[in-house]
Structures are given as C-alpha cells and as structure tokens.
Amino acid sequence: MANDQLILALSFQRLAYFELKQIEYNSRRLLHHHIIAEASIDASALRNMQGSLNSVEFLVEILMVKLQLPLIHRVTGHVHISTNPKLCYSTRATVANAHRLLYLCMGLDQDVDLKRICIDIPATWEGIMACGILQKQGIATLATAVFSLEQAALAALLNCTYVSLFINELKVHFRQGYVDYENTSHEVCRQIHALYMYMQSSTEIMAASFTSVQDVMDLAGTRHIIVSQRLLYELRSINADAWYGQLGAYFARAPAGDHWETRDWRPLMVSKESAWKLAFARSGFGRNEAKTIQAINYLCDFQDQLEQLVALIIAANQPAENLGATTH
C-alpha cells in the first residue's frame, strides 16, 4: 500500500471544478467565495505574471494554486498542481505553464517551500519531455494519464518523480454502467515495477483510477495509490488480515507464461521521438494511446468548465457573498 509516512494532496481540473462550484449549506453563496474574491485581488497584484493568458485563464491558475497551498501545512509529502492539459502537446508551453504556477505559489506565499510542489503533466511525448526539463531544474513532476510501459519507461529515463498509472480508463467514472472488463492496467502496474527494478529507477508509481476494493487489494504493494472517498470508507471497514482474497495478487506471482523477471526490457529504452511515438501507437494495438487521448479529453473538458465557471463569476460582477447565484 502507499507509504503511510508520505501523504500527497492532489489537484487537477475535475477536483478544482467541483470544489469551486460547491454551495454553502443553507446559503446560495459559493463555499469558497472568499478564495474567489481574494483571487481577483491577487490577479491584479500579480498581473506581471499573466503573460499571454486572458483574465479567465489567469484567474483559473491562481485559484488552482490557492486551493492547494493551504494543504502544505496539513500533509507531509508533495502537494500537486496540474498544468493546463490543453498545452500537453507543446513542451515549451507546458514548461512555461509550470514555471508560472511556481511563480504564483511564491507570489501568494513567500514562505512556500517549492520542493514540496509537484507539477502534474499528461504523459504525451511533449509532456514527458517537459517533465524532464523541469526535473533538471529541481522541480518535482508527475507524468499522469499513463496506461503503458512505453510511457512509464520514458518517464523514468527522464527522471520523473512519479508516474500516475490509471488502472481503469477514465470513462468508467463518467459513463454510467460502463466497465473496462478486459483492458485494465493491473498487469501493466506489476510490469512497471519490474521495469523500474531493472532500470534501478527512482521514479515512483502512483496508481489511480480504481473502481473497487478488489482493485486496491490486488495491487497492494504499489508504493502510492489514489482512491476515492467512497473506496476509503469501504477500506476502513475491512480487516485486511481477514481478506478473502490474496493481498497483492498481481505482485505475488506472475500469470502463466509471463516471465517478467527475466524479460528483456531493453527495447523499451527508447528516447528518439519518432521511434517512441510509433512504439506508443502500437502499444496494446493502439488501445493504450487511445486511453491516454480519452483521458486528455476529459481533462480538457474540465479545464473548459473551470474557465466557463470563472467567466460567469467575472461577468456577474457581484459581491463575493452573492456569487453563488451565478452557478445555477
């Protein structure tokens, strides 16, 4: 299971969107109306960091940072802030976005320890290249929306701090009744562990997109896991010693015919763009790249919704205590 001495606070567009649109109990005010009001003031004070962003995009980035910064004082590990997923096919734009997020952290909290901030970036070729540049600058990164060994290998070659392996494609969380029966990433998770042992890599796996307690129990032994509040409640009620299945089943033994301990991992050590993109396109007969593209689409959709929400708030031009009415 996840190292209990390292607690990570995660932020990405979906979480930020649902957090910012919450309404106070017995009130029409936004729960975070004070943060939104402060962010508008901060946007004016930090305008020199805005660059080519429009006012809505800039305010969204400030809000993403403001939601996360207080958590630094409550957790012992990294606090994660996501780059704009719309930039994930541009290395230069993603690096610039990451730098701006860190400058905003310093602008909003002069005492912030930037070593505690981890920048989350979708695991396209360009995104992983951006991770590599940032890592060389001493900035922690997480390559997210990973579904394949090809992505994991490249991330490790470029010394990403983490890779976020999605066990189920994101569609399972948004399309009611949809189940990814045959193509989950349980086996990929175990293989990435073996790959990283072979590479002697310091990159750590952070498994995500779980849908059941069974998923979590199967992958016990993974260094870090991200689970929903619902699964946390279910796990809390379970006695692991009395679990009816085998804990860490995917690490306890390899499936028949898969000799992963002696596999030749060298073909995965690809750092040339054209060769890597072809290998990724062929991974799982195109299935893994398709899942990554699907995940990027969901992330971009929530980025759009965040921007639309903030635009409504700006357009309303109301006192902070009345902003809740603009979300209906």
General description of the model:
The chain has 328 residues and is of the alpha/beta class. The protein has a single domain (9-316), classed as TIM Barrel, CATH 3.20.20. The chain contains 13 helices and 6 strands. It has helices at 13-20, 33-45, 55-68, 91-108, 125-136, 149-157, 171-174, 186-199, 213-218, 229-236, 249-252, 273-282, 287-316, and strands at 79-82, 117-122, 140-146, 162-166, 204-208, 224-225. α1 (13-20) runs parallel beside α13, α4 crosses α5 and α6 (149-157) packs parallel to α8 (186-199).
Compile the SSE list and pairings.
Elements: H1 13-20, H2 33-45, H3 55-68, E1 79-82, H4 91-108, E2 117-122, H5 125-136, E3 140-146, H6 149-157, E4 162-166, H7 171-174, H8 186-199, E5 204-208, H9 213-218, E6 224-225, H10 229-236, H11 249-252, H12 273-282, H13 287-316
Parallel strand pairs: 1-2, 2-3, 3-4, 4-5, 5-6
Helix pairs in contact: 1-13, 2-3, 3-4, 3-13, 4-5, 6-8
